[in-house]
Amino acid sequence: MNFISDNAYGASPQILASLSAANSATATSYGEDVVTARVAEKLAAIFEHDVAVFPVVTGTAANALALAALCPPYGAVFCHKDSHIAVDECAAPEFFTGGAKLAQLDGEGAKLTPRIIAQAFARFGGGVHSPKPSVVSITQATELGTIYKADEIKAIADLAHKQGMALHMDGARFANALVSLGCAPAEMTWKAGVDALSFGATKNGALCAEAVVFFDRTRAEDFAYRRKKAGHLVSKMRFISAQLEAYLENDLWLANARRANALARTLGDGLSAIAGVTLATPVEANGVFAWMPKPLAAKLHKQGAKFYDWVVEPERVMARLIVSFATPETDVAKFIETAKG
User: What SS3 class is residue 334?
Assistant: First the structure.
């Protein structure tokens, strides 16, 4: 019963097969291969827009390098205080931007709102004495498993653009959010005002493959140099791109996300029916955040369940339970039954 992370599970068989296929012939190095070109074409079709696509190996690289392209060294990136870029990326965004400030903001459900952003913008009104507000970064789905609806994204984008700021989306779990909303990728991104997207695949079935997607090529003019300097211009790029191609082929990415989301809803429904257990946030993607008495959390850990005690209070624990595309249904059922017993 491993609910530590969707990273705990391996890769989809189709993606592993794509690596074997990519290994069967020679190819041009450093992303000049036909597989990388096909991925860019496929993403342009999926997003219904001309895009600049840059495969990288990690989500940290995708986020940090995307922000570096959007934010000057003297700038500020507005983000939620619990966001991955603020908490889990070892100051990589600050490093690759050349020292830009992460302005960490509060917000219910790990989400930012136009009001919160406007209040933060007012605090950075000191001219050259303050970092220049340059980027708003939102996470889709968020670190608490919540989702920004398309109109919420547009409201943030409209405000950001009015203030001369760009909008970046950390889409480590982009597919999970997309299938939950049931909208087209374009509706959740460039049509809503997103300027750059960190398109995640690793958590949803890839081995190690992410991509930075720019919806305005002018914002990506120097990105190839940034990626090279950061060590993410992989010489055998076809092996990264092959994962992305298989991920997108026949909508595998959407099927994987639908399965993970459905199992998370089953887990959330089962836990919320247990006395003393309440959901901290609605189950909108593949994460379940549930408050439970400390003794219950301890019992579950003792019975072999793996999950994070995300927030610990004197009498209760908020458990973070992340469901993968590959989580066995039996593990979900066993966890619920163990919690009931």
Answer: helix
